[in-house]
Amino acid sequence: MRLRDKVAIVTGAGYGMGESTARLFVREGAKVVLADIDEEAGRKVAAEIVSGGGDALFVKLDISKEAQWTAAIAATVQRYERLDILVNNAGVSGAVADLNSLTDFDRIMTINARGPFLGMQAALPEMRKAGGGAIVNLSSISGLIGQTSVHMGYNGAKAAVHVMTKAAAVQFAKYNVRVNSVHPGMMPPMRSGQAGSDPSARAKLLESMVPLRRAGRPEEAAYAVLFLASDEASYITGSEIMVDGGYLAM
Questions:
Q1: Any idea which architecture 7-249 has in CATH?
Q2: Is 154 a catalytic residue?
Q3: What's the pTM value of the predicted model, to 2 decimals?
């Protein structure tokens, strides 16, 4: 098992890539704290993991709130006595009706950029106590390019995650804490009913823009996260992995 006896927090674990990552981590031997603002969804996934023989705990977490991060870390340490891995996955879509909305800009930046920063800040002290750790931040292809179809605040927030990952990598290295990012391409919507989730429109977009001619599957991003979180990536920090079907290679 690639994460035997490791303790991990995965945010946004009630759906999509976060859920896939949490389930994969458990299969690989980790004890996983599933954090999500959606209590019903997160508790459901955690209960399913436990009923299947895994070790999991749910905590409700709004990643934009510092106090809630403090509580989530405390709950993790109280239950498992350490923290080895943080996966900053939770976020909101940039597919909004008004691409010039300041309200949406503030909301996207607060959740998608402030949230991962608060997570790294909160996790570092416990990782130092454990002698090291691994942080994997979910950025996006949108953090590397401009796009016509999403709010520029989403591009900006995901770009911030990309560069904050590199900054944290060089600043945390002295504590033996590695920090890397994963950049998914076109994946299923994070929540059902999410704006921009029309199946026919997505199919046409994929056909014309993605060399592999299909959407990614959540587990394909999860396996990239698993690699970076594992000891197999022990000499990798400040790096990124694209999981985009070749989109950025064009």
A1: 3-Layer(aba) Sandwich (3.40)
A2: yes
A3: 0.95
